UniProtKB/TrEMBL annotation, chain A:
Domain ABC transmembrane type-1: 72-283
Compartment(s) where it occurs, according to its Swiss-Prot or TrEMBL record: Cell membrane
CDD domains: TM_PBP2
Name by which UniProt lists this protein: Phosphate transport system permease protein
Source species: Sphingobacterium arenae
PROSITE patterns in UniProt: ABC_TM1
Keyword Transmembrane helix: yes
From TrEMBL, chain B:
Signal peptide bounds: none
Transmembrane segments: none
InterPro entries listed in its UniProt record: AAA+_ATPase, ABC_transporter-like_ATP-bd, ABC_transporter-like_CS, P-loop_NTPase, PstB-like
Gene name, Swiss-Prot/TrEMBL: pstB
SMART domains linked: AAA (SM00382)
Protein's name in the database: Phosphate ABC transporter ATP-binding protein
Gene Ontology molecular function: ATP binding
Amino acid sequence: MKYRTRLSLDILFKIVFKGTGLLVLALLGGILAMLVYNSFSFFMDVKPLDFITGMEWSPTAAIPKYGMLPLVLSTTLVTFGAMFIAIPLGIGTAAYIAEYASPRVKNLLKPAIEMLAAVPSVVIGFLGIVVLSPGIADLADLSNGLNALNGAILLAVMALPTIITIAEDAIHAVPKTYKEASYAMGATKWQTLRKIIIPAAAPGIIAAVMLGVGRAIGETMTVLMATGNASILPTSMFDSVKTMTATIAIEMGEVPYQTTHYFALYAIATVLFLMTLAANMLGEYFINRFRKYHAV
Amino acid sequence: MKTKLSARNLNISFGTKQVLKNIDIQFVENEITALIGPSGCGKSTLLRSFNRMHDLSPDAKITGTLQLEDLDLYAKSVPVTQIRKRIGMVFQKANPFPKSIYENIAYGLRINNLPCDKSIVEKALREAFLWEEVKNDLKMPATRLSGGQQQRLCIARAVALRPEVILMDEPCSALDPVSTLKIEELIVYLKKKYTIVIVTHNMQQAQRIADKTVFLYLGEIKEEGPTHKIFDSPENEMTANYIHGQFG
């Protein structure tokens, strides 16, 4: 190829890639602008403080109430519940695959986990309705099992593949020299795992957990199907809850265009966005704290 | 002259590849023994068989008798962690843990249920000639030390457990001459208390520090003896060729 052609190709691709990079930024900016713009329209009608601290969400009542606290609490409850289950299971499984499992078990387990990730959320929600929720109802002696616990268990199942895969990668990536050094000092496998490998893999493990949290906060279909969708202030895991995502999904289809209620859904979406952002930034913060010791 | 560490009729193979053949060797207490030989001759494999590092590779097959004094190193009743506490190891590439300098030494003490306080850590660092350089930065991540300091930290970490034998796998191969010299000085100082086996590619290093030298070639011991004899009047032609740099 001629020198000039090569040179112009080089410049062309520089522009193309710059373009794709800027496009992503523009998309993010556009989404953010739309959320904020519509949220402002909402806050013209309802005071932000009333929105954030309001204890009641009943936008279709005679006197509409736009308190999002029940929704935020629902999302938080389900997410934390899910993480409470998924983090120990996920890290345990990851450690097992990376450190203990024989190659045969590993070859069985890894594809199985990938397949778990491939199960559509609507199927998980369905299983939640027909299998899990009757079980919870029986055990806890409730009229039905469509509650926060049901949603948390299902979300844990959905977040597990993400957490396991990324945490396993992180554990696997810990330099072999650390392990050798630890064993050479007389450490057992468990001591090495707990004191050396997991701390060294911590940035990756935290990233895995944060991605799991992101998945759990943002998940819609499963919680919509499995948590009962009662917009009351939840007091325990056995209460029916209506998460922020489910609220938007359910109500967006029925709400009259450009009404206060319509804008309220945007405001919820903005808060959801901020929560996810906070989860990610928290993850970054921890990653940097641990990275300090990894610097070469 | 008491034999501290020995191997009799040792054969090691990985899968179908035999790496060591009929090795018979003794290491004398408070002596430095250098293992030399071309790459792939089995020096490191031999070294690592003494603290059972091959336990980590499932395809390693080991036959023969390895002993620390009278203790059979591969006996089922002997916990591997006990052996590794008594036989310390320093690796080719300095591998401090991604923790602080203090924690790097405290870790080994804690996992072995040994007492651990600042004076014990200080003693280990002093013995590794590192104390003066790091005494004000004990909380600093160990990875920020220079390569030579990191390697001395690894030696301090091994020394802190008060082992009987220290195995060193080319501890200076990644270091500059000044750091190398410091570590050699340290090794010679340590032999008063410990039995040291060192793998090295550096002929001058072997001559400078080792009391005894063992030449391995293709998994067999070709010649062994006092260092000056191996280097001044080798009996085996292969040894002569190797130490004069004709191959390797």
